Amino acid sequence: QVQLVESGGGAVQPGGSLTISCTASGFTSDYLAMSWFRRRPKKELEGVSCISTTDDRTYYADSVKGRFTISRDNTKNTMYLQMNNLQAEDTAFYYCSAQRVECDYKGKYDYEDWGRGTQVTVSS
Questions:
Q1: In terms of Cα–Cα distance, which of 31, 35, 58, 29 is closest to 47?
Q2: pLDDT tens digit sequence for 93-124
């Protein structure tokens, strides 16, 4: 089973940028994609972005499209989320996940492999 560790969270002012990372160990070819989720205060968990490990296709929630960029470095077993023009509504605990289905899978999937998360706070 894969182990995932997020890092790079912190506090930033509105309009600022931050890059968070997710380092994986025990990653196998069974995992077809990796995702970033977030839980904002008093909100449900939401998907933010996903990247396929087979062809590097990327997907973004409408709320972050054009501001966030997901990427991965296979040599470091690390996935990144570069976040630009951060706003107060981006304040959340960010989690990474590895999944055995592609990003565009439409069926029901039980996410089992999660990191512990990293806090991102956007405030003036």
A1: 35
A2: 999 999 999 999 988 888 889 999 999 999 99
- Say how far apart CA 124 and CA 105 lie, in whole Å: 38
Map tokens 């990653």 to a residue.
27
For 59, the token pair is 């997907």
Structure tokens given for 79: 């996935």
Beta strands in the chain (DSSP E): 3-7, 10-12, 18-25, 33-39, 45-52, 58-60, 68-73, 78-83, 92-99, 113-114, 118-122
Q: Which two tokens stand for residue 103?
A: 């990003």
Residue type, 123: S
Sole residue written with tokens 């380092």:
23
pLDDT tens-place string over residues 30-66: 999 999 999 999 999 999 999 999 999 999 999 999 9
